[in-house]
């Protein structure tokens, strides 16, 4: 009976934990018919070895993903990816068990710990300092930093891991993070040289040029490159700034279509807010609007963006722009003496862009240093309070021991007078003689 009660308690705790994790406003709510389609696919016997119809899956994701099945659906889509791509990518990590990784120490511990409090700080699952959510997130990031020594830990990864953790268990979230990084190819943008991220910023700039020329010209006029506002979108999959319900839908599409989705979402968001962006006339207000106002999307705008993304196909352009970027870089290095002026212009533009990036990074570094100092001061205060509390506990323990001893002595003292008085009551009365 006791075991059954424990099982029941564990089941109730799991249910409460799941409710806590899925505490976000859903967009594109699922109709019963769509939920039934998903449940049928998920319950198919031997599903991990069966290739499902791509159009059917595309249609199902487009119509919505039920929140309570989302984690299982992501795992299902990952299985389908592996069946479609029979030959895994060349760079695969060593197959080290998750529990073995957790036993090791990581050199990235300090960086990970600092970012825990900044990752979804208002979400109930992550808000408690070193609570269940933060500890699970720390474990995943620590394990990944040990598995992938080249990337280690990079800012932004905590948000990606956090989204996965909200929809599945800790170990399953780690496996899905590995899948996104190595199979889908996200890890390229987190490499220390950040070259892939630079290419992505160039690709986004070219997409703006082709799809929204007036917006592109407006941003260029104020010398605003995508690196000033879009880098966090790519590094966190929009999770650091946008509503969770919207981010979950972005992840639905990434599991279905890959990293191309990030470009499509960024392009759709900028395009749909174009009239408002064009109203701003200086660098500070434009960047502030894109960073802080644009992410506060309404449900209608979110659904509109998701629907636009499903209709877009920019794969060929992205490939062309990547080749174009490399060609331009080679020209910058190998240009002939006849084009010195052009070369200087390009170098000046590149330097100007790099200076802006450096200033932005310097600003972020200063903010981060300020937070580190604040955290260190808080830790010192906590350690001091802990020391004082320990001292107070020791004093109380000593007082308790002294009081117990006094009570014992009083008990003994109260017992002895009664022993002395007892003979007086039993003395015989004197005789008349």
UniProtKB/TrEMBL annotation:
Identification of the protein by name: TBC1 domain family member 1
Tagged with keyword Acetylation: no
Subcellular location: Nucleus
Domain Rab-GAP TBC: from-to ranges: 64-258
Coiled coil: 344-392
Record region (Disordered): 409-433
Domain of life: Eukaryota
Main location: nucleus
Organism whose genome encodes this protein: Macaca fascicularis
UniProtKB keywords: Coiled coil, GTPase activation, Nucleus
PROSITE patterns from the UniProt entry: TBC_RABGAP (PS50086)
Keyword rRNA processing tagged: no
Function: May act as a GTPase-activating protein for Rab family protein(s). May play a role in the cell cycle and differentiation of various tissues. Involved in the trafficking and translocation of GLUT4-containing vesicles and insulin-stimulated glucose uptake into cells.
């Amino acid at each position: 009976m006791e075991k059954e009660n424990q099982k029941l308690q564990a089941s109730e705790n799991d249910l409460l934990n799941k409710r806590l994790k899925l505490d976000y406003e859903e967009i594109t709510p699922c109709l019963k018919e769509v939920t039934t389609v998903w449940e049928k696919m998920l319950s198919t016997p031997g599903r991990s070895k069966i290739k499902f119809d791509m159009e059917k899956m595309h249609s199902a994701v487009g119509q919505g993903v039920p929140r309570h099945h989302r984690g299982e659906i992501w795992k299902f889509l990952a299985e389908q990816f592996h069946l479609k791509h029979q030959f895994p990518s060349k760079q695969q990590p060593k197959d080290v068990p998750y529990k073995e990784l957790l036993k090791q120490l990581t050199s990235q511990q300090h960086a990970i710990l600092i970012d825990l409090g900044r990752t979804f700080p208002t979400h109930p699952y992550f808000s408690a300092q070193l609570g269940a959510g933060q500890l699970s997130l720390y474990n995943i990031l620590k394990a990944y930093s040990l598995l992938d020594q080249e990337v280690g830990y990079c800012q932004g990864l905590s948000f990606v891991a956090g989204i996965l953790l909200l929809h599945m268990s800790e170990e399953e979230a780690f496996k899905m993070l590995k899948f996104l990084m190595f199979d889908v190819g996200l890890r390229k943008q987190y490499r220390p040289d950040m070259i892939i991220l630079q290419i992505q910023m160039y690709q986004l700039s070219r997409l703006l040029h082709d799809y929204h020329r007036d917006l592109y010209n407006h941003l260029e006029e104020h010398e605003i490159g995508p690196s000033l506002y879009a880098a966090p979108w790519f590094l966190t999959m929009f999770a650091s700034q946008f509503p969770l319900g919207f981010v979950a839908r972005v992840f639905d599409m990434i599991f279905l279509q890959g990293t191309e989705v990030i470009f499509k979402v960024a392009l759709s968001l900028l395009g749909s807010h174009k009239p408002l962006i064009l109203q701003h006339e200086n660098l500070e207000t434009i960047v502030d609007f894109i960073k802080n106002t644009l992410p506060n999307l309404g449900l209608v705008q979110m659904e509109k963006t998701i629907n636009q993304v499903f209709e877009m196909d920019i794969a060929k352009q992205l490939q062309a722009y990547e080749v174009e970027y490399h060609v331009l870089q080679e020209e910058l290095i190998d240009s002939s003496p006849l084009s010195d002026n052009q070369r200087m212009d390009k170098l000046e533009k590149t330097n100007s862009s790099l200076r802006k990036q450096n200033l932005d990074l310097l600003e972020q570094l200063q903010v981060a240093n300020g937070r580190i100092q604040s955290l260190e001061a808080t830790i010192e205060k906590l350690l001091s309070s802990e020391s004082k509390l320990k001292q107070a506990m020791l004093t109380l323990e000593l007082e308790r021991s002294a009081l117990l001893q006094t009570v014992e002595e009083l008990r003994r003292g109260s017992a002895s007078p009664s022993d002395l008085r007892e003979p007086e009551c039993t003395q015989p009365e004197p005789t008349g003689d």
